[in-house]
Amino acid sequence: MKFDLDAVFVEHGCAGSALATRILGALARDVPVTHVADSDTREATRPAPGAPDPFGAGKRRLVIARRKTPFLAPCPAGSSEFACCGYLVLTLASNCPMDCSYCFLQEFLADNPSFQVYANFADSFDELDRLAANARGRIFRVGTGDLADSLAFDSITSISRDLIDFFASRENLTLELKTKTDEIENLLAMDPRGRVLVSWTLSPDAVYRSSEHLAAPPSARIAAARAVLDAGYRVAFHFDPLIAYPGAERDYILLIDELLDVVPPKQISFVSMGGLRMTPGLRGAARSRFPGDPMLCGEDVLASDGRFRTFTPLRLSLYRTLADRFRKAGAEIPSYLCMEPASVHESVFGAPPVRPAIIGKRLARG
Predict the structure, then answer these.
(1) Which of 201, 224, 250 is nearest to 102 (CA)?
(2) What is the pLDDT of residues 205-215, one digit of tens each?
(3) Residue 229 is part of a domain; what is its CATH number?
């Protein structure tokens, strides 16, 4: 396992589950394991009392529990306000052992920061089959990388194997595993049959060193992408958040050049971009936890959606710089902007965005 844990809590009803058995069998012997009553699970997920950094401490506590609400939902970033990519989110875990200074989970999970993984994750397969049965002829892209990195704890959960086995036999479902790690060992042992996409969030070295604590270096993520591509997976890349710091445009171009030297442009399924954006609550939490990170102190303004966003001319300049570089890559790479209005999309790409169902189908099947 590549991430340390201080404690593990197992809900009584999950003690004999396949997932709990896998995790407990893979843990180091010195990690304390506590079994808790189902009614006490909520307490195990709360911030550790007295910790100087309750959110950071929560990331080092793993809770194995049963999810009592649906697993499948539309991407929470989608709305009538923004151009949408038609992404569906499958929540199989909550929180992330990495600690990126800009991460929205610092606000969203402030009251329950322990890393949670759901022992009944296989119940999500029934939800997916119902979705497919009720929408015959449509193709859906479903990802697990919203409230948790898709692969960060995969060495002890092996959930990726179950997911790949399921999606490989569903013609109208595409799985997206989104990560900042290079933890791909389980993937290389499986046959995705063309129905699994692995995507990496990429940032220049300056952002990685300053802001992406415990994540794999960008070069390691790119190497991992090449390895899974050679193993039969599709790959994609997210440049999100784009951060406008001195020298950013040069650094992002160098990063893209490094990527295209390793992964042929024609084999990139898509690229997404999104500017740094923070609610006032997230901005305060991030700056409090990471007071020395210059990436959190750029030129931003409070936008109409209630988020602090990079000053529009700076943001548009970065978008256009990256879009132009990919446009010159020698192959048409589908690209979209995350959480931006249609007007920004048109300003960057020269055309309005297509409808969510259409772009969702394009991204799902490439």
Answers:
(1) 201
(2) 999 999 999 99
(3) 3.80.30.30
